[in-house]
Amino acid sequence: MTSTVFLQRIADLYDEFKQHDARQSDRLRRYRNIEAESAKLLGMLVRTQHSQHILEIGTSTGYSTLWLAEAAKSVSAKVQTLEINAFRSAQAKKYAEEFDLEAYIDFWVGDAADYLTESVEQFDLILLDAERGSYVSYWHDLKRLLKPTGGTLIIDNVISHTAEVKPLLELIKQDENFMSTILPVGAGLCMVVVK
């Protein structure tokens, strides 16, 4: 069960991240973390599915990573998180240590495309929350890495950045092996599962 201490600490961290983003005029300087309700839903999915292998594409400063790891702890699972920016990944690792969740997270720094191409592990849950221009190029590997039974892909920002994610959503709709739906939570989540 999510502890009251975790909920308070994560709420404070979320406020800190939001204040930081509000001060930045350059989009790339913002942390651009997932919305609080979306992060909570991810934690719930890990618990209900008993996800053992979790992949996060786009760590940023680790807000969603902490939610995933806190849920992973409750089901004895592990989170693999990918981030291209080494400084951001280091920040996320520091927060994971502060929350005493670092044992449940493997941090990987580099281009997600490289990781996805080389990985052979299959995942129960994949969160895609990175640079949206790369999403279409990820699709082939995402399909391969998603566990065929019960695997779930969650894509963030499908309502807030509709035009940017539309090419990927169209690819998914055309693929007869998958079904998807849009969840009006946070900035909009698309949930994708194998048929």
TrEMBL record:
It comes from Acinetobacter venetianus (strain ATCC 31012 / DSM 23050 / BCRC 14357 / CCUG 45561 / CIP 110063 / KCTC 2702 / LMG 19082 / RAG-1). Signal peptide: none annotated. The keyword Methyltransferase applies. PANTHER family: PUTATIVE (AFU_ORTHOLOGUE AFUA_6G01830)-RELATED. Coiled coil: none annotated. CDD domains: AdoMet_MTases (cd02440). One of its GO terms (molecular function) is O-methyltransferase activity. InterPro entries: SAM-dependent_MTases_sf (IPR029063), SAM_O-MeTrfase (IPR002935). Keywords: Methyltransferase, S-adenosyl-L-methionine, Transferase. The keyword S-adenosyl-L-methionine applies. It comes from the Bacteria. This is O-methyltransferase. GO terms for biological process: methylation.
